[in-house]
Amino acid sequence: MTSVVQEWINNLSWKQQTVLLAAFRGCDGLPKSDPSKRFTKQIREVILKNADPTSTFIESGLEYDLSYVKDFFIDCSRGGIDAYPVHWMMHFLQAAEVIGYKHPDSKIRKYWLEFYLSGIRALHVNPESEKQLDQRLQDNMCQ
Q: Cα–Cα–Cα angle for 42, 46, 48, nearest 5°?
C-alpha cells in the first residue's frame, strides 16, 4: 500500500515530516468562512494525496495568490494574527516554513515562504534560514 503523503515529503527528515503532519488540522472553533480555512485546505493539498475528491477536506485548484497572504496577516476587521491561538499559528507557520524551503515546485515554495515570513514579521521575531531549519529539525535517532 502506498502512503497518503505526497512523494516529496519522503525526502524530509522525520521531524520535518512531523511538523507538516501537525499542521493540517484547522484551527478549532472558527466558522467555515474564516480566512484561515483557505490556507488549511491549501496546506493539506501540498502535504496529502486526496483520498476523496468529493470531500472539501482538501480542495484542489485554490489560487496561490500572494495577496491572500498579505490580507490574512493585516486584516484588522477580525484582529489579524491576534485572532488565532498562538499554538495553532506556530504549528502552521513552521509547516509553511518547511514547505517554503523544501517543496519541489518553485511557485508553491515562494507562496509558503512568503506566508512564513509574513507570519514571522507579524510576530516580531526573526526568521530561520533553511540551514537553521535543517539543524533544528534534524533527526537524532539511534542507529
A: 105
| CA 3 – CA 98 distance, rounded (Å) | 19
Report how far residue 136's alpha carbon sits from residue 46's, in angstroms, rounded to the nearest whole number. 22
| Closest to 88 measured CA to CA, from 15, 24, 13, 16 | 24
Q: Which three cell numbers stand for residue 71?
A: 490580507
Q: What is the pLDDT of residues 32-88, one digit of tens each?
A: 888 888 899 999 999 999 999 898 888 888 888 898 888 888 765 566 778 889 999
pTM of this prediction?
0.92
Sign of dihedral through CA atoms 28, 90, 116, 94? negative
In sequence order, which residues have a C-beta less than 8 Å from that of residue 127 and are 6 or more positions away? 97, 116, 117, 120
